[in-house]
C-alpha cells in the first residue's frame, strides 16, 4: 500500500513542474519518439474538452504513453499551468491507491483551476478501479471538474467501467478512444511519397460507389503504383511505430517482436500458466487459420487442451488487442453461436514465433488488414465502436460460400478480398451476384470499374480512400 505522504512525494517529482521547458529532452518516451526516423502523432487526444473523462485503449507498444506525453507537451506550450498537469503510471497501483493519490494531489498542486489527470495503464489495476474512479467523480468536488484521461491495454472489465462511469464524463464528446497501429495512409506517407492528403479526405465506406471510384482512380493515377507497392510492404511490416521505424532504417525488428511475444505471454495469457513455447505454438496456430472460421476443437487438438480453453485464450487475446473476431452475420447482426473468423490485429503478430515457419501469404494478410481498415473507418465515425465487433461481419451464402466483409454501416456494399492480378478476381462475381449486395473486390493491382454491380479496385487504393 502506498501512503498519502509517499504519494505526495511521487507527485512532486513530476518533471515538468520543475523544468517545464527542459523535461521533454529527458523524458524516455519522447526521447524514443524523437530518435525515430519519423515524427508521428496519431492525434487521438487532440480535442480534450475541459472537465471530460476519457478512456484511451490500445495494444501495448502502440504508443499510448507517447500520445499522452505529447498531449502534455502541447498543453504546456498552449499556456496551461504545468503544476495542474499530473501523470501517474497506474500499473503499479492498487484500486485504493487511487483515492490516496487524489487526496495527496491537494497538497502539491495549484489550488485554483481545474487540473489534467493522465492515469496511464489503469486497466492493469486489479480490484475494481472503475468503482474508485466513480466514487472520486461523485464525491471529490475538484476531481469531478478535472479533465481525466485513463489509458489501458486491456478491454477486460470494459463493460463494468463504461457502466460505472456513465454520466460522469463531463462535457466529453466521443470519450471512448482506441489507439490502433498506424493506418496505411500514414505508413504510405512516411515510407513513400503518397498523394496530398489534404486534397483527399477519407470517405465513409458507404460512399465508395462505382462513380466515386471512377473519379478517384483518375485523380490518384499518378500514385497508384506507390499504393500497390506500399500496400505490399504494409502487409509485412504492419503499423506499430517500432516496426515501421525498423523498415525505414532497413533494420531487423527482431527485438521488438520478442517484446511483443513477451507481452502476449506475460500479460495477455498470464492466467494460462503456459510455457512461452506453448504461447508461441498457440499464436502460430491461430496465424495458420486466418481467414477461416475458427474450429476450436481442431485448434485444441493441435495444441493440446480443450475447446473451452481455446475459447478462453482467444478471448484473452481479443481483450489484449492481439486478435479481433469477425462474426458471421445474421440479419446484419453478429451470429454469436456460429464460428467466428479470428484475425490478428497487425501483421507483426504473425511474425512473433521464435521457430521457423512458412510465412503467411500476402493474400490472407491483405484480407486481414482490409478488415482492420473497415473497423478503423467506423471507429473514426463512432469512437469506441471498434471494441463492439458488431459492425464488420462475414456472410455465408446458401451454397456455403463466404463473402469476407459486410455490415450495417457499409451501405449496400459487400467487400471481398482477392489479392490477385489480371482477371482472376472475376471468380468472386458469381458469389456476390447471388447475394443482396453490390460488390467491391479488393485486388492486388487489378482495376476494373465497368460493371455497375461488381467492381475491382487495388486494396491499397481502397484502404487509402477510406482512411484505413
Write a concise synopsis of the structure shown:
It contains 20 helices and 14 strands. It has 468 residues and is α/β, with parallel strands linked by helices. The strands form five sheets. Strands 2-3-4-1-5 form a five-stranded parallel sheet. The chain has a three-stranded parallel sheet with strand order 12-13-14. A two-stranded antiparallel ribbon has the order 6-9.
Terminal CA distance: 44 Å
**Shape assignment:** globular
User: What is the alpha-carbon Rg in Å?
Assistant: 23 Å
Overall pLDDT confidence: 90
- Poorly predicted parts: none
- For the report, how would you describe the main beta sheet? 5 strands, parallel
Q: Give the structural class.
A: alpha/beta
Give me the number of helical elements: 20
Amino acid at each position: 500500500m502506498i501512503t498519502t505522504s509517499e504519494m505526495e512525494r511521487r507527485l512532486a517529482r513530476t518533471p515538468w513542474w520543475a523544468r517545464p521547458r527542459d523535461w521533454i529532452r529527458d523524458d524516455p518516451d519522447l526521447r524514443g519518439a524523437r530518435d525515430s526516423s519519423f515524427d508521428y502523432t496519431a492525434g487521438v487526444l487532440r480535442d480534450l474538452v475541459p472537465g471530460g473523462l476519457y478512456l484511451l485503449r490500445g495494444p501495448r507498444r502502440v504508443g499510448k504513453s507517447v500520445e499522452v506525453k505529447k498531449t502534455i507537451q502541447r498543453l504546456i506550450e498552449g499556456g496551461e499551468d504545468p503544476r495542474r498537469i499530473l501523470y501517474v503510471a497506474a500499473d503499479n497501483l492498487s484500486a485504493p491507491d487511487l483515492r490516496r493519490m487524489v487526496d495527496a494531489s491537494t497538497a502539491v498542486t495549484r489550488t485554483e483551476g481545474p487540473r489534467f489527470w493522465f492515469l496511464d495503464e489503469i486497466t492493469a489495476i486489479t480490484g475494481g478501479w472503475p468503482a474508485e474512479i466513480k466514487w472520486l467523480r461523485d464525491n471529490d468536488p475538484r476531481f469531478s471538474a478535472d479533465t481525466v484521461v485513463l489509458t489501458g491495454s486491456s478491454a477486460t472489465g470494459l463493460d463494468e467501467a463504461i457502466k460505472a462511469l456513465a454520466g460522469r464524463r463531463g462535457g466529453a464528446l466521443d470519450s471512448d478512444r482506441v489507439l490502433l497501429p498506424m493506418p496505411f495512409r500514414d505508413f504510405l506517407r512516411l515510407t513513400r511519397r503518397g498523394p496530398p492528403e489534404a486534397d483527399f479526405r477519407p470517405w465513409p465506406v458507404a460512399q465508395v460507389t462505382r462513380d466515386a471510384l471512377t473519379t478517384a482512380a483518375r485523380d490518384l493515377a499518378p500514385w497508384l503504383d506507390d499504393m500497390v507497392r506500399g500496400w505490399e510492404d504494409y502487409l509485412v511490416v504492419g503499423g506499430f511505430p517500432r516496426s515501421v521505424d525498423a523498415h525505414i532504417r532497413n533494420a531487423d525488428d527482431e527485438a521488438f517482436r520478442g517484446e511483443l511475444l513477451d507481452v502476449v505471454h506475460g500479460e495477455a495469457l498470464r492466467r494460462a500458466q503456459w510455457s512461452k513455447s506453448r504461447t508461441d505454438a498457440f499464436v502460430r496456430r491461430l496465424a495458420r487459420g486466418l481467414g477461416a472460421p475458427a474450429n476450436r476443437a481442431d485448434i485444441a487438438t493441435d495444441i493440446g487442451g480443450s475447446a473451452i480453453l481455446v475459447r478462453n485464450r482467444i478471448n484473452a487475446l481479443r481483450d489484449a488487442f492481439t486478435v479481433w473476431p469477425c462474426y458471421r452475420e445474421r440479419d446484419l447482426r453478429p451470429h454469436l453461436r456460429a464460428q467466428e473468423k479470428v484475425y490478428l490485429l497487425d501483421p507483426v503478430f504473425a511474425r512473433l514465433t521464435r521457430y521457423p515457419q512458412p510465412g503467411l501469404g500476402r493474400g490472407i494478410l491483405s484480407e486481414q488488414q482490409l478488415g482492420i481498415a473497415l473497423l478503423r473507418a467506423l471507429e473514426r465515425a463512432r469512437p469506441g465502436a471498434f471494441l463492439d465487433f458488431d459492425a464488420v461481419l462475414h456472410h455465408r451464402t446458401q451454397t456455403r460460400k463466404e463473402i469476407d466483409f459486410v455490415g450495417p454501416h457499409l451501405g449496400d456494399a459487400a467487400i471481398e478480398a482477392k489479392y490477385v492480378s489480371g482477371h482472376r478476381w472475376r471468380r468472386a462475381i458469381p458469389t456476390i451476384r447471388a447475394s443482396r449486395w453490390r460488390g467491391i473486390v479488393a485486388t492486388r493491382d487489378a482495376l476494373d470499374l465497368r460493371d455497375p454491380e461488381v467492381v475491382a479496385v487495388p486494396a491499397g487504393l481502397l484502404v487509402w480512400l477510406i482512411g484505413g
